[in-house]
Amino acid sequence: MNTKGLRQKILDLAIHGKLVPQNPNDESAEVLLEKIRAEKAEKIKNRELKADKKDSFIFVGSDKRHYEQFTDGSVKDIEDEIPFELPAGWAWCRLGEIYWHTTGKALKKSNEKGTLKKYITTSNLYWDSFDFTEVRSMYFTDDELEKCTIKKGDLVLCNGGDVGRAAIWNFDEDICYQNHVSRLRPRIAGIYNKLYLYLLMFYKERGMLNGKGVGITSLSANDLLSGLFPLPPLAEQKRIVGKIEQIFAQIEELEQNKGELQIAIKQAKAKILDLAIHGKLVPQEESDESAEVLLERIRAEKAEKIKRGEMKADKKDSFIFVGSDKRHYEQFTDGSTKDIEDEIPFELPAGWAWVKLPDLCSIPITDGTHKTPTYSDKENGVPFLSSKDVTSGKIDWSKIKYITKDLHEELYKRLAPRKNDILLAKNGTTGIAALVKDDTVFDIYVTLALIRPITEMIFSQYLLFVINSHFCKNQFNDHLTGIGVPNLHLVDINKTVIPLPPLAEQKRIVGKIEELFEQLDSIAMNLG
Q: What pTM value is reported for the model?
């Protein structure tokens, strides 16, 4: 469920007057506006307020069209600016007609006149909330305090930073504010701030409240105050806000449940992988060729290649076997044997075997280039992947970088990734692996390790699921080094033990995992 879209729909109904029924007994918005204009005229007459040439008000003519009348008496037809028809009792107005507006004080370190006061800026102001993690102070004179103080109930808005973000100051203690923040106070008691906070949210999401400028944008007072807003009767304003808050509370509960369900889906996937590597996800079949037979065939083939000089013997090579006493041992190249029964994580089903990760690979596990890459543009370069391009189960090609073709030719001679290889992140997103699913030509950086399974004995997708399971991640985490950004070294990757089922069972396991994951992903997608 798209709860963000649902909120927008609720606000859309509210702004069109369709969220709550109208009451013909409510004092109309036009009466409110007339009161504002009369009060303003009286203050100008008594010289408490200066007339503003930019002042105007909107009215509906006898021809049912909307007009705007300015201080100098001129009138402009604005029917084409009116977004939609309002219910009876409502009226269109400029924001500046119903709100007094001031901006805060510009920060000047050299200014030390007045009293040191705390102030807020855009970094403290969020949607319908404030963050007081860091509240700074500067000097304000008495004259500045009148203009630059927020009081309980004021509507506060960002005119810099995330333009339009707003909240209501609901604290008993007053606070000052910087010039990237605007203060809005109703001109009359008939304006309900909470409604206009929601309308600002709606306008912002719909792209109707934008700043100007390149890079850092700002919202001018003129652009803000000239914005067209609907004005319902005061009683209806409160009914609308009450209904919005009731529905939003239900949406928040949905979101909380959605978050809990997403966690449950993640946990379910982890449990599925755990069942898979314990041999409990699909039944075993006696007719399957055992993993031990596969391993013996691979070791024999490897020994033959060493004998023919096609492969070098590695002093670190070893293999795991079960002795006549049913205990697990590790035999090394020099013929020595070590009892490793205490290192075996759990008992495997019949036909399975424990194996070191390198024993499942057709080439030694290695990492990408240690050289500082020479980058190129996409048109003239070759894809170059690092750990940041690997996410669980897939490669993210959307933000990859490209290297020169000359560097690619040099790197490709050493290591040429290919379809069904597994890329394992050595740092950054450490321990996360992805499968190469096609024959795209690319190179890798040192932050990635390349694992090439022997496809005759191991199904690449099975190995990928095992590597991405908590079982392998726990092994990786035991070997992480480094402060800040953890690193996983090749020598430790080579120590990883893997539960190996018969090849036929590997494929059955992968089929079941993909079936269950698809169902879980479908649920997650429907959550929005």
A: 0.61
